Amino acid sequence: MTTRYTKDHEWVRMEGDVAVVGITTYAAEQLGDVVYAELPAEGATFAQGADMAVVESAKTASDVYAPISGVIAGANDAIKNEKWEIINHSPQGEGWFVKIRPSNKAELDALMDEAAYANYVKGL
Amino acid sequence: MITQTTSGNRGLLQAEPLIFETGHATGTGVDLPAPKGTANKLGGLARKAALDLPGFSEPETMRHFVRLSQKNYAIDLGLFPLGSCTMKHNPRLNERTARFEGFADIHPLQPTATIQGALEVMDELAHWLCTLSGMPAVALSPKAGAHGEMCGMLAIKAALEARGEGQTRKRVLVPESAHGTNPATAVAAGFIVDEIPARDDGRVHLDDVVAKLGSDVAGIMMTNPNTCGLFEPEIKRIADAIHEAGGYFYCDGANYNAIVGRVRPGDLGVDAMHINLHKTFSTPHGGGGPGAGPTVLSAALAPYAPLPQIVIEKSGGVRQLVFAEHEAELAGTGRKPFGRMCAFHGQMGMFTRALTYMLSHGSDGLRQVAEDAVLNANYLLARLKPHFNAPFGGPKNEHAPCMHEVLFDDSSIKPKGVETIDMAKALLDEGYHPFTTYFPLVVHGAMLIEPTETEPKRELDRFADVMIALAERVNAGDVEHFKQAPRLAPMRRLDDTRAARQPKLRWRRGDNGAEAAKHAAE
Q1: What is the CATH number of domain B93-355?
Q2: What is the pTM of this model?
């Protein structure tokens, strides 16, 4: 169960046949305290790289892109219930955003692994 | 050292609760007899519960608002380095002419024969805006920058519809560094936003634009100089590429102060641009508004300019300016206004001030405005660069000039524990309104400083000395100084996160704002 990462600081991890997606610890730290997030509706379809969600902090607002193509299979209830702090407390755990049923699993392999992402962040 | 006082005041800096918290509905400052002999015509709609508005005597009312005004920071108090805002001095001559009764005490519905002077001012202002921008037409009515953006985008939409492409050209290109209003305007006008990614040099590249062009592109929205304070050198080629692809070029004129009198946007291929009179042309701004955002239009968009339009009427050898309020009045001119931006003609008070500013400066003076604005920003860049990281300021020993504003980031101080927000709060203690924080978004921890041309060198030096002293404090490891800031402002550090997560948009009796304010002041 390896986690993959995008250059736009999303993470994605297969759990069974769905992919769990969120923003990385680095992204959460850069944003600061999250004050708002908008998640896509279940059943919505996104191509890889499409605007999928929005996350907002006191400092800035950012788009969250679909790390892989697919259909939204579920969204995090805690975030839907406006428990924004969960995104800062546990960005890569309980603070996940959505589950995606991938339409092309090969896209996952092209994303960065943990070491590559750590290296990428170091260069920013 | 902070001393708690019994009154809650800090010396002559008086604590002031919300007006609702001190006033009482039963109190009033006026003593009028109840009306007699007038039947209530509200039927069953008469109010049953008390309105619960606070009542005050005149001196209490005066004191409330004067105390609030004393907490305000204004360009009349000191340097206002807020980037992307052009907080320049508002000359008092502007105020004098705006108060002439022929301009101030008139009404938009009075006969036009009685307001010919005011219409001449508008016509003359339009002439100046067209001449300076190199564009054939201007819509004076938009009431602020974003309203002007809306005007420009609606003109583009009307032009596309006239070409039969209103339904097929929906995509608007917007660089990542744009003001947030640009994508918001495009969406509000019914377009779809396609973002152009930022490059390392902070500029928009022709290749990135060309890669996104297609038969569904309605146009592009760019700012020049851009929000990083940099001139876009490829702007003409980008405009040509957009036109070749059948789209239009909206230029955000927020940063026009850097180029006024030096560059005519029309020569760069711009189709529409709003001009913030409250920035470039020195009308009050920032709590002191209202703004005004006249929008200049190219020959391609001019026919769609909104109503009302000033037209010259000649009858019996008498020349008169009148408002054309309906499309029918423009018959035979080929003009097809897309609609109107507001009820009347725009902000008369700002028109008078802006024209006063233009006439008192002259074209040579306006050119010098742009030159001095750029010079002042570069002076701050040169003085502060050894102490803060300037992401686009060139390598350490090399000077890459900026335009009218200079961009730093917090990358040199963050490893020591001090971020942009801490630096901004520390500036409050030093008696300055902070620079723009965390914008543009393309630079992490941005600190955007726009001194404007109206600051003398000694004022720039005083500000630079403060910034340098703060940088040295960071280097000395005095992080606590920053984390505790502001100590001397009316309020201590506010909880931005809580304010955003649990916004209180209206006061209700029982809300204890005074308690919260006291807490924040401690």
Answers
A1: 3.40.640.10
A2: 0.90
